[in-house]
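Async update (no meeting this week)

Hi team, since we skipped the sync, here's where things stand on the single-chain job. The sequence we agreed to prioritize is pasted below, unchanged from the tracker. I ran it this morning and attached the output directly underneath so nobody has to dig for it. Comments welcome in thread, and please keep replies under the output.
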Amino acid sequence: MSDVSVVPTPDRNDENFWTAAAVLVEPPWGEPTQEETFAMDERVIDAARALAERISTRASAYRAADKPLDPVLMASPDVQLALLRALYETKQSAERMAESAATVAGRSGASYAQLGAAWGGIKRQSARLKWPHAVVRRSASESIPFSYAGGTAVAHHDNDADAWWYSATGADHQDTESEPVHSTYAEAIAGATEYLLAHAHPGGQ
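Output:
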């Protein structure tokens, strides 16, 4: 991994904050260790088991009888099928979050080659097929829509001010419009992303 000491770390109230945030750091990440991936596996299975217990017919029967589900019953074939169904939902959730991350990264300056590298090293063409709208041509007259954290936003260019602004609606249905004060589309997208994160559903991504 590269020397992190060379990465700028301005505070949120620093006038250079958005400029620094819009610059893509290389390399963008370090490879996770086996310990880190195992820790993630544990969190994923914990979330999947919680969902499996909610959707399992057997677990529902125990709840209806006002009885706790003995942990050993997780080994029952029907409960394991409920767990498998829950794991499928985690896969779907990961795909949705990946699309959001790819769109925000792509519309903030990342290339399809970089998106493919982040997604396990798939080729640029495969990344383009997977997220066809993530990377777009940007012109001064173009509006750039994207979704994140359960909300939606659009970055717009104001020709009169020669600056970018954004409109955003969070997952909580609260909306906002910024002033045309952002010098680049990446700064406007960063501002919109911050708003969408602040207005995501509790515990949401």
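Quick observations from my side:
The mean pLDDT is 88.
The helical segments are 17-21, 34-55, 57-64, 77-106, 112-118, 124-130, 185-198.
Reply here if anything looks off.
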